[in-house]
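stage 2 :: seqdesign
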């Protein structure tokens, strides 16, 4: 594609060279500039043979001593000049365009211009459609390597979530028979470099269907209508293949929330997006075409995109945890001559918050460094150098140290949430606790799902508040009152909302009794003030926070266990958590502070952390 485009840009130059040479061809005589003063002198001394007069700013002069030289001087465009020259017996040629040559020249120029212009336009048009053909659309089968799930390390949950899609792409008829409606569109969301593109390619590879890819950012700043027609071409192409996977990277460039698109209406973007949605709703159920879109942030997307029949399945692709990182390192280390001293599980531990792309890059840089020094194998020194090269750009300070403090705080914070849930709300499902930040927010997160119930009891609401406050309570208990962090802001917001409902809507506060306070406040009741409400809410909050703290203090041993399990594994699941609570989980780690453990541990399962 590049070759072609360069050629087009070369055309104006060819045009320029051609016209210049034409100019030379027709100018058989030499031209020399002379000042108007010199010209007048020449006139006075009767040296001038001929003057060509026209309306140009310059006029041509021939001197008697050499008629082959054409002198050029300023044309005063004075109507008296002709008479003045004639009086001096100088030949005056009045010429509308100086000579027949110029006319010819002019015609030639215009003709040439048109030819070139038409050529460029024609090729530009062809180029635009070509872009869709081979520039942005890459089919796995043609030039690209075929990918499969073995090329994707970790991301187990995401793989699980797209398994049915692969089956659907393989045998769409099977699903039609059962009247099942498969998702047309799937959104992969997560930080950059976590393997969203890779996953999409792997799905196409696993299902054996062609892979088409475009990026939302390709559509920005295009002429109106071009984006929409590109989308239509793309789908047409995919349909021709029968089955296909269409991957749209950076979908947010197209489908940002209207309000978030600060620049106001963008016709081109809207048209492109509409074309996409129209194409998607035009599918028949038995068409084996799936669209996967990727974004770093789900929350900026327009809701219209996420509606049923559109991108109604959202799959999070998160940063890898320690296990995932080790798998990614092993995968990309496979074809590299790594020295025995390179311990990939240790490296996985040191690369917290690294994405898959960063890990791949780390090993690649190390290989380059080793190759530069002509080493037979990649040693630990190469890895270290590459490591600092990669993290150098991101932060100047001692990053590893900051990360460790952050990690500990996050671990205890999340452990607090998990512990309290297990203690006071055992019916909740805690499917995942992690210290790896999700796209939903900084720090870690606990996936805490309350049981589905029609009514919530007073006890449920209090438990929910205590679970929310437990993160802060754990931080305070372990790191001291002065070291509590901003990490609890969302928790506090959530707890405040619940306590407000508790007091205002549900009349659960004994002191204020069975009233809806909003009704009182809205009617400007003199007997009731906001102040009273706030005081009541904070009293309840205080009471619940105290209770939370006490629970945590009593069970500090378990808090430590959970936090340390998190520091080692980064992610723990419900099973791990239950084992910890049942004293069946043992942490074998010399790096961690032993004194934090206050009770001897009965071992059934051993998690090896450090050799
Ligand atoms: P994204 O689309 O999420 O920005 P990519 O799929 O483009 O990320 O990932 C870039 C590269 O990083 C991949 O080509 C691959 O080499 C590496 N990579 C990322 N995640 C993984 C993973 N889970 N397993 C193996 N390699 C990965
Ligand atoms: Zn929290």
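stage 2 :: out
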């Amino acid at each position: 594609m590049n070759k072609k485009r360069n050629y087009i840009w070369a055309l104006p130059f060819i045009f320029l060279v051609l016209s210049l040479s034409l100019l030379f061809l027709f100018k058989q005589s030499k031209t020399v500039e002379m000042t108007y003063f010199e010209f007048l002198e020449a006139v006075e001394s009767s040296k001038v043979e001929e003057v060509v007069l026209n309306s140009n700013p310059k006029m041509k002069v021939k001197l008697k001593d050499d008629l082959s030289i054409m002198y050029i001087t300023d044309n005063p465009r004075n109507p008296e000049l002709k008479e003045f020259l004639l009086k001096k017996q100088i030949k005056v040629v009045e010429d509308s365009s100086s000579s027949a040559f110029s006319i010819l020249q002019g015609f030639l120029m215009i003709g040439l211009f048109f030819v070139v212009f038409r050529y460029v336009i024609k090729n530009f048009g062809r180029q635009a459609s070509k872009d869709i053909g081979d520039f942005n659309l890459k089919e796995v089968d043609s030039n690209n390597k075929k990918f499969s799930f073995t090329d994707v390390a970790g991301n187990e949950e995401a793989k699980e979530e797209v398994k049915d899609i692969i089956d659907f792409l393989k045998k769409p008829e099977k699903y039609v028979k059962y009247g099942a409606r498969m998702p047309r569109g799937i959104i992969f969301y997560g930080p950059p470099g976590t393997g969203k593109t890779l996953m999409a390619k792997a799905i196409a590879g696993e299902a054996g269907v062609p892979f088409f890819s475009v990026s939302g950012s390709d559509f920005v700043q295009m002429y109106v209508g071009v984006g929409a027609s590109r989308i239509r071409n793309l789908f047409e192409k995919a349909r021709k293949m029968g089955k296909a996977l269409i991957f749209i990277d950076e979908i947010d460039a197209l489908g940002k929330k209207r309000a978030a698109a600060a620049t106001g209406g963008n016709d081109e973007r809207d048209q492109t997006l509409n074309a996409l949605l129209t194409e998607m709703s035009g599918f028949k159920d038995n068409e084996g075409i799936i669209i996967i879109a990727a974004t770093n942030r789900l929350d900026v997307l327009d809701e219209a995109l996420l509606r049923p029949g559109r991108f109604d399945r959202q799959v999070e692709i998160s940063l890898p945890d320690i296990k995932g990182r080790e798998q990614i390192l092993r995968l990309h280390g496979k074809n590299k001559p790594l020295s025995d001293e390179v311990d990939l599980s240790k490296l996985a531990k040191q690369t917290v918050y690294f994405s898959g792309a960063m890990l791949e890059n780390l090993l690649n840089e190390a290989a380059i460094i080793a190759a530069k020094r002509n080493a037979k194998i990649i040693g630990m020194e190469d890895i270290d150098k590459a490591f600092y090269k990669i993290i150098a750009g991101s932060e100047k300070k001692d990053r590893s140290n900051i990360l460790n403090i952050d990690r500990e705080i996050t671990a205890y914070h999340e452990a607090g949430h998990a512990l309290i849930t297990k203690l006071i709300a055992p019916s909740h499902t805690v499917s995942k606790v992690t210290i790896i930040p999700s796209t939903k927010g900084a720090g870690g997160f606990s996936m805490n799902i309350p049981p589905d119930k029609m009514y919530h009891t007073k006890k449920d609401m209090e438990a929910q508040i205590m679970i929310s406050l437990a993160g802060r309570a754990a931080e305070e208990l372990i790191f001291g009152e002065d070291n509590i962090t901003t990490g609890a802001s969302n928790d506090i917001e959530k707890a405040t909302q619940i306590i407000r409902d508790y007091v205002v809507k549900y009349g659960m506060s004994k002191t204020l009794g069975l009233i809806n306070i909003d009704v009182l406040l809205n009617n400007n009741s003199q007997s009731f003030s906001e102040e009273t409400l706030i005081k009541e809410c904070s009293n309840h909050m205080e009471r619940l926070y105290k209770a939370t703290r006490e629970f945590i203090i009593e069970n500090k041993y378990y808090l430590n266990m959970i936090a340390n399990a998190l520091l080692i594994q980064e992610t723990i699941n419900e099973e791990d958590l239950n084992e910890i609570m049942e004293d069946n989980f043992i942490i074998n780690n010399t790096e961690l502070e032993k004194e934090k453990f206050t009770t001897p541990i009965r071992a059934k399962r051993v998690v090896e952390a450090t050799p």
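stage 3 :: structure notes
- The first helix runs from residue 2 to 26.
- The first strand starts at residue 30 and ends at 33.
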